[in-house]
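Handout, section 4.2: multi-component inputs.
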Amino acid sequence: MGQTEGSGTRSKGLSQTQRAVHELRHLILTNRLPAGSNHLESELAAQLGMSRTPVREATLVLETQGLLKVRPRRGVQISSLSAKDMEEIYQVLTELESLAAELVALSGPSDETLAPLEAATLDMEAAIAAEDREAWAAADERFHRELVSLAGNGRISAIVSAFNDQVSRARALTLYIRPLPEESLRDHRALLDALRTGDAAAARDVHRTHRIKAQHMMVDLLRRHGFHSV
Amino acid sequence: MGQTEGSGTRSKGLSQTQRAVHELRHLILTNRLPAGSNHLESELAAQLGMSRTPVREATLVLETQGLLKVRPRRGVQISSLSAKDMEEIYQVLTELESLAAELVALSGPSDETLAPLEAATLDMEAAIAAEDREAWAAADERFHRELVSLAGNGRISAIVSAFNDQVSRARALTLYIRPLPEESLRDHRALLDALRTGDAAAARDVHRTHRIKAQHMMVDLLRRHGFHSV
DNA sequence: GCATACATTAAAGTATGCATTGATCTGAGG
DNA sequence: CCTCAGATCAATGCATACTTTAATGTATGC
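Output:
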């Protein structure tokens, strides 16, 4: 199993360490390094076509982001999420995204500023009509990312992004189990209204409720289906 | 190549990398590596009596925690906080600690569970009476850390801890400029009451307000005194 | 006199080899 | 048959040597 590179060797100015971070993250998010699996530094290095050093550095970074754990002598272990982990992460996501919604509302956004959110909402609508869950998930993610980004707090963006990475596999797993997210669409509409009118308290509250629903659904699904490594 | 261990060789089971993380963090927090200063990997390595490898690994970790930035060819630069950074960080701290307060209230804590918070509050009281600001700061930090820890969400603890590290120097700087924190003491009492009675909404709100006050004070002080690198 | 291209060099980035360490296996004793 | 001590060995931790790269200084041409 050699260079699973695909696209040839374009070094593109990225350092090997950065490449390792990105590729490993990608491999994890796409489940090609499945949750719970163990991998030696040297294996990963061979797989990525580099020496152990940049791989080591990458694993340290990814460990701080919660995607894996470095366990001396047992290889790096890809993180798996228990229902408890899920709950912890969603609590933080709920909180920080609600804050983001509040901040956006407080900033008195123009219609132009809100355009990406509108667009994402329209896409979600279309996706639901077409019962295209993948498309819905993509639009939903765009909506949330854009919302957080509009809040203008880089720290929030960084944390939310890292945590979303951690739960992305679980989302993918549950995407076809859960009901079509029509309610979610209504929530987004309500949030948009609150943002437009600059109603910060409502924005926060709507989004908070929205997120808490998602959180309960995810945790319940995981518990119910007995997923222990997601 | 010998162990150029300045302070005696107590390896204590820690890896060099971990030692580097801890020592560098300590050097930064105590301002011996001042905000804004630049340092070559090799200098730091020499200073810590180890090779560049563990130092590199440590800087990568500390970078993800926001304590420094690795700038190729220009050395690692110790982070300095602008008022904007301060605001971003405090927004997150406010949000997550308030959530923590809510969670603790929801858990219906026993008096025994709350004992550490009580103790910290008493210490703060004594410190204020004695006008001992250092002691007050220490007790205050204990209170906040314990509160977050009681919430039982490891992710919150990790984020709050990392962010507190980032603002600790600024806190130290302003400790003697700001008014004696008597109001802060009242806030803590109110929070304790809410926790005892299990009033989650009140707990969240009291702490949120408490934190927002602190945030404004810090940001104002920094702006007013024109600190640009803290 | 200024700008630009080239040389120089020092620091980061990477690979590799060696030392350390802890997991696992084996064998002896209970 | 089970437990535990010690040996074995492989993976990591760390250092070091080498490569690449970009900043700086110099010289040349305009």
